[in-house]
Amino acid sequence: MERASKVIRGLRLGDTISAEELACAAWPAAVGKKIAGHTRATRLVRERLVVEVEDRTWQRQLFALTHFILRNLAKHLGSGLVGDLEFRVVPRRREPQRAAESIPGLFDEASAIEDPVLRSIYRAARKRAQA
Asked: How far is residue 121 CA from its own chain's centroid?
């Protein structure tokens, strides 16, 4: 029995599903959730799948696992589509984080005090101290 991806590739449907899209879509299944969370397959150049990784540590570790990853990709895609892997370090962009104190009224540490009387005493003392 042939894999579905091999059958789809053999149908020659035109540009509906390219080999690159197929290889990038198979990446998470071939490496697992944990590795897929730190990497991203971006493109297929000839038979080389280019994979973006977070840092040099991931690059070195995945380079050591290249043989096993290629074997898993061959199981999912069939042999001949991906013959080599290239790991490129591309750090993730993160949105800037704002401090809670920079936005007034966003976080009030007094709200953590359960007793309403003590909470009001704390707020009054804080107000006097800031004046």
From this structure: 47
